[in-house]
# Entry
Amino acid sequence: EQLGYPILLKAAAGGGGKGIRFVRDPRDLLSSLRTARSEARSAFGDGRVYMEKAVSPAHHIEVQFIADTYGNVVHLGERECSIQRRHQKLIEEAPSPLLDDELRERITSSAVRLVRAIQYVNAGTVEFLLGPERNFYFLEVNARIQVEHPVTEWCTGIDLVQEQFRVAAGLPLSFTQQDVRFRGAAIECRISAEDPENRFLPATGSVQALQEPSGPGVRVDSSLYPGQQVPLFYDPLLSKLIVWGRDRSQAIARMRRALAEYQVVGVRTTLPFARWLMQQPRFITGDLSTDFVAEEWDTRDGEAASAVALDSDLAGESEMAPGIDQVAALVGGLLANEHIEAEKLRRRPVAEANGTMSRWREAGRREALR
# Structure
């Protein structure tokens, strides 16, 4: 009652958007609390939750930092992470189009003071919510290198992973705060195996064709390859598409071109959503919030929704109707595998094939392994 509604219930050991419930009405508090605790216990083995005031509309701003064992703490600017679904990021960019120099200094200085106070060592991020009145509120510390760290690397020219190795080896950072220079703008799109036309639910399938973008200012960090099976059992992230430009307008233009080149056939991905987003006036002008997807994507008119749905269908169509070349390659692969397995079976000793092994042979193997 002191906080006032709406409020957020969050898993104390949580992350990745799990164990969070938005409560608008006091009558929903108990049921939401039970659900949040259950989800937290299932995901993290810890059913504790805490309550905080919900900030809405909000910007999700995070500050990248790295600290060594010599007491050096350096921030590398902020990232804008407001484009989300289910409290998980879809798009990240640096710098934030919302912050001016004064607000940027306040946020980054607060992050550095916090890191010094807890004597943290390693790379990490301090995350904040920025409210409509331009006050910012501490959210959490992510004690690790994050998915979106290439955005910061593009804008600073500093290899964060290399610096982590230095810190782990007991060496000081190779740069100071005064050495950090920010240039241009960078944007990252997370490409995940999810169907944006079906509430971003996880998608499965086989990658039957793949074309990744390239060119000036384009970076792709990817696990994808033709023939890859994409199951439901793991995180849906497949790749990260990162671009850099001399300013935000050029970065958006490069991202549009890279997304047009990027083709994944056989598995539905978030590529259609990313292509749609890069054309939206609100995104282009930097009018962002954590409610952006609900306000813009979920309320599209019929014509726009049909165009994106067609894009998604084209990505998944070969999964339903593979071409003659794909069928021939699949049959050839199966026949080759069958031949290999038959040859292995033919070469196995008779005793081993029957599921037993000579005791003399077993003793010899043990002796050789000593």
In short: The longest strand covers residues 59-67.
